């Protein structure tokens, strides 16, 4: 179980290119964390991370234009190799 006090003390970077998903998920995350920084693609995510070096956790989509989630994570891990990252995907493959 996740400790509510821990969640309320962290700053999260959330990266998602799909507007509806980003807006809904950002509202949900914002309700449980201390601070939320939102980016719309990997390039924006790297820039927001550089501007906010006190980010504690990254939650990112994997498939995005300009720079995908994995490429963004590699760039961010060059800055901070210890940053925890959660990668999500809405890709639906019926096979």
Summary tags:
39% helix; 95 residues; Rossmann fold; 4-stranded parallel beta sheet; globular; 4 strands; 4 helices; alpha/beta
What is the CATH topology? Rossmann fold
Radius of gyration: 13 Å
The helix-strand sequence is HEHEHEHE
Multimeric status of the protein: single chain
CATH-level-2 architecture: 3-Layer(aba) Sandwich
Fourth CATH level, the homologous superfamily: Response regulator
- Share of helical residues: 25-40%
Which segments are poorly predicted (pLDDT under 50) over 5 or more consecutive residues?
Answer: none
- The total of helices stands at 4
N→C terminal distance: 33 Å
Structural class: alpha/beta
Largest sheet, order of strands side by side? 2-1-3-4
Compute the number of structural domains: 1
CATH class: Alpha Beta
- Give the CA-based shape: globular
Total strands: 4
What's the overall average pLDDT, rounded? 91
Note the main sheet.
Answer: 4 strands, parallel
Task: Report the portion of residues in β strands.
Answer: 15-25%
Overview of this structure, please?
This protein has 95 residues and is α/β, with parallel strands linked by helices. The chain has one domain (16-88): Rossmann fold (3-Layer(aba) Sandwich), CATH 3.40.50.2300. 39% of the residues lie in helices and 20% in strands. It has a four-stranded parallel sheet with strand order 2-1-3-4, with helices on both faces. Helix 4 (69-79) links the parallel strand 3 (57-61) and strand 4 (85-88). The longest helix is centred in the first third of the chain and has 12 residues, at 19-30. The termini are far apart.
């Amino acid at each position: 179980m996740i400790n509510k006090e821990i969640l309320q003390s962290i700053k999260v970077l959330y990266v998602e290119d799909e507007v509806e998903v980003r807006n809904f998920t950002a509202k949900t995350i914002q309700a449980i964390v201390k601070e939320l920084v939102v980016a719309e693609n990997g390039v924006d995510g790297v820039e927001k991370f550089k501007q906010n070096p006190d980010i504690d956790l990254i939650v990112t989509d994997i498939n995005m234009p300009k720079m995908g989630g994995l490429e963004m994570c590699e760039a961010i891990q060059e800055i901070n190799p210890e940053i925890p990252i959660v990668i999500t995907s809405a890709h639906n493959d019926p096979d």
